[in-house]
Write a structure and sequence with these properties.
By secondary structure, the chain is mostly helical. Helices cover 48% and strands 4% of the residues. It has 4 helices and 2 strands; from the N terminus they run αααββα. β1 and β2 form a beta hairpin. α2 crosses α3.
Amino acid sequence: MTVSNIKRPKTGGRAAGTPNKVSREVRQAAMAHTGDALAALVTLMNEAGNEQVRLQAATQLLDRAVGKPGAAIEIVRFETADQRNGKPQTLDDMLAEL
């Protein structure tokens, strides 16, 4: 067995459960500017000369207000749990049809 394959315990870094103070301070500083940032996005969406900039600003606002759209998932209903069209189906067969 080579040395790179040996599992070693994690060493260094913050202890588990210790908050990252730098991230908290940066987040708090950024929160002070969220009103201005949203106003800038609205201004870009309404007044930018470039359609791509307006679209991107609108998309950013929607992502923050409603959330990003989820992936569409198709649900296939089988007549029974283990048969379809009279043929036995394995899980692999069912997944292959998706």
